[in-house]
Design goal:
This protein has 165 residues and is of the alpha+beta class. The chain is built from five helices and five strands, in the order H-H-E-H-E-H-E-H-E-E. It has a domain of 102 residues. It has a three-stranded antiparallel sheet with strand order 3-4-5, with no helix packed on it.
Length: 165
């Protein structure tokens, strides 16, 4: 990674690391393969941070690390993700440097991430106000694969509620 010496006032780089659970899907794969894949991603994030530090650009960047989804890893009978709406698959960690880049340290949704980043980069005065839409948690896999009842939960101003199928 070679950051530009003369960075603009605001810039965004999006780096996507492949799904570590692909290591679990290979024939004969073990949890150790999954751990190795996670270590590889962790090492790559470390290289990014070290490069920013050694280039003198660390203070000019917001580094945000977030997962697209969680993994069941056996919790609630789900080995990977997409089968249930458990906290293990729906909640993801968000790590930001500096921590103030994302504002409040309370549970949020991933739909809050982009507006918070825009506000942190001073690209939007509205910031987090832009994310007031309803977020739906839904999965159809259990119904299609196993005939389980279809359920979805919605987060609205009154909190979580289950939608009838």
């Amino acid at each position: 990674m070679r950051p530009r010496a003369a960075a603009r006032d605001s810039s965004v780089s999006w780096i996507h690391f492949g799904d570590a659970t692909l290591a679990l899907r290979r024939d004969g794969a073990t949890r150790e393969n999954y751990r190795k894949a996670l270590r590889s991603i962790d090492d790559a994030i470390g290289v990014i941070g070290a490069t920013l530090d050694t280039s003198g650009l660390a203070g000019t960047f917001h580094l945000v690390v977030v997962s697209l989804h969680g993994e069941g890893l056996g919790e609630g009978g789900e080995a990977l993700h997409g089968l249930t709406l458990s906290d293990a698959t729906m909640r993801v960690p968000v790590v930001a440097s500096p921590p103030s880049a994302l504002g409040a340290r309370e549970p949020r949704t991933l739909s809050d991430l982009a507006p918070a980043l825009l506000e942190g980069l001073e690209l939007s005065e509205e910031g987090a106000k832009a994310s007031e839409s309803t977020v739906i948690r839904a999965t159809r896999t259990p119904h299609r694969a196993y005939g389980w009842r279809d359920e979805a939960e919605v987060l609205g101003s009154g909190g979580w509620s289950t939608l009838p199928s």
